[in-house]
């Protein structure tokens, strides 16, 4: 995480009047936000749309940003989290969406059968993750995609490090149950 | 049963290993990141106007164009009328042109 945030903070202060400063902040964070949104929506089209909205909203409100000891990235993640929640609500569906496998665009496999099996297993795991409640999905994405520590995840989710640790263990248990359920549904 | 499913049932480490393999960063398309940056930096974050604004603007432009056309037509009619009156005045005996 770019908690080496004195730089971020200086840029945030300048960004209210200097779009170039916001451009630098954008370059630093766009990939993480995109990954986060992608895993929460399950497709690139909506990930692009929501990522654009995250940064447009951030740009519009950057002058109101207050340094409360929470990194700028946490502020962006919260915007992303709220927009994704609205997206799911608007679509009136559970956050289980058709999977658009980002691994499917790789080179042709030497052993197509094994590759197909691996892809199926990945899809199963992703589907199990997407069946979890939103906060648990967020936790897994922040920990595994963004490789954040429990303390950093806590800053983003507004929880203590201990609470994140506890939520993480409950999440793994729930994920295991979902995988078992899916394995039964798809023998 | 799939091999991963079995592995996931092994324990926390197995499950974490699977998550590490599946949840990997996803890169956005280069064209998307460039165009979004341009929108933010060059156009200062302005979003495309909503459809109703575009429809309103188009309708206003059409009304304005129709109004202008009407005005031009009226002015040319007035001008033609003035010219006709002045010509008639010139042709009349004892008029200005006689």
Overview of this protein structure:
The complex is a heterodimer of chains A (187) and B (98). Chain A is an all-alpha fold and 187 residues long. Chain A has 8 helices and no strands. In chain A, α2 crosses α4. Chain A is globular, with a radius of gyration of 18 Å. The N terminus of chain A is likely disordered. Chain B has 98 residues and is mainly alpha-helical. Chains A and B meet through α2, α3, α5, α6 and α8 of A and α1, α2 and α3 of B.
What portion of the residues of chain A fall into strands of 2 or more residues?
under 5%
Residue ranges of chain A: pLDDT <50 for 5 or more in a row? 1-6
Portion of residues in helices of chain B?
over 70%
Intertermini distance of chain A: 39 Å
Q: Assembly type of the shown chains? A: heterodimer
The helix fraction of chain A, in percent, is over 70%
Largest sheet of chain A: none
Shape of chain B: rod-shaped
DSSP helical segment count of chain A: 8
* Bulk shape of chain A: globular
Number of extended strands of chain B? 0
